[in-house]
Amino acid sequence: MPIADLLPEPADLDAYVDDQLTEGQRAQIEAHLARNPEAAARVMRDLALRRDLRRALAAPPAPRPLLGAARRLALARRRDARLRRMLRIVPAALLIGLGWLAHAGLGPLSVGESVAAAPAPPAVAAALSAHQVSLLRADMASQPETRGLDAAELRAATGIALPGLPGDWTVRDAQVFPSPQGPGIEVLFDTDDLGPVSHFAVRAGGFAVSLPHLHTTPDHAAAWFQIGETAHVLVADRDRAEALLATSVALSDTLY
User: Is residue 116 part of a domain?
Assistant: First the structure.
């Protein structure tokens, strides 16, 4: 049954939460949610509940050495299976294989595989750039840092609402940062558990509800999520990836 343009059935919203729709159907649902705050709030609550149920039903975490070995084995099996499939296909498969290798993160500026296999939105690239610029500014005496963080003023100027940030994070620099998506908010923090970490928020140009995903580069980890029309990205050193993802989950909960 096609999804109604103006009034989707409850089952359509459930299918959106369960990620069972085509791209076109998701676009129709997101257009409806953008016009209906009550329906959007319900979807956000359902997504959070779905995530919490997955956590509750998940197997206990393996010890770190075993977990690392399991990840390497799973990655090796996936690559082996892909290579076997490519070897059975004639020359066009070579081009597909080269594209897959580039997507897998072998290029110097590529974004690595995510925890949930979701493609990184443009805001992630902007956040990584903003993070590097913030660290550069922090080491320059001629570029004074702005430690005052006025969330209300920033929201009035940009239309971007910041999440509830941890009280023990120390603001090192706060700037309105230009990006291809428009002006974003870049805040660099000093933290005890994550080291230098930045939070970048920008209006994404469309409505979506995305729970936190993790992407990595050779040097950094970026955890992103989108609530409504605003994309949020946390960036820290790559070796803090797991803790960064957990923190992004906690921050996303403050926006529901």
Answer: no
**Are 133 and 248 part of one and the same domain?**
yes
pLDDT at 93 over 70: no
Does 211 have pLDDT greater than 80? yes
Same domain, 131 and 33: no
Range of the domain at 101: 64-106
User: The pTM is what?
Assistant: 0.62
pLDDT at 244 > cutoff 90: yes
Asked if residue 168 has pLDDT above 80, the reply is yes
**CA–CA distance, 188 with 175 (Å, rounded to integer):** 9
Cα–Cα distance measured from residue 205 to residue 53, given in angstroms and rounded to the nearest whole number: 30
* Domain boundary, last residue among 45, 80, 106: 106
Q: How far is the C-alpha of 110 from the C-alpha of 126, rounded, in Å? A: 13
Both 97 and 150 in one domain: the answer is no
Helix, strand, coil percentages for the chain (3-state, nearest 5)? 50, 20, 30
